[in-house]
Amino acid sequence: MPARCRCAGNPRDGETTPYGELAGLAGVFVADAAAFPELSAKPHTLTMMAIADRLGRHLAQLPEH
User: Which of 17, 21, 28, 46 is 20 to 30 A from 61 (CA-CA)?
Assistant: First the structure.
């Protein structure tokens, strides 16, 4: 069974925030297919690229630590 860290707005519904940050583990992000609720039979490369781009833009806006 593949590992999943589903993206959701509520920790009860998924393991990551809408930006891929792991619930309960601040600063750790998932930016690959593990964030998908389920994988389709169709190629999902462009979707993973879009998720990674969105996360990168989000991280760039965060204040530096």
Answer: 46
Of 33, 2, 3, 29, nearest to 18 (Cα)?
29
Q: Taking the model in full, what pTM does it have?
A: 0.71
- CB burial of residue 15 (10 Å; 0-12, 13-18, 19+): buried
Query: For residues 44 and 58, what is the distance between their CA atoms, to the nearest angstrom?
Result: 21
**17's tokens:** 């925030």
Instruction: Match 């593949």 to its residue by tokens.
Output: 2
Q: Mean pLDDT in each 10-residue stretch from start to end of the chain (65 residues)?
A: 69 82 87 76 84 91 82
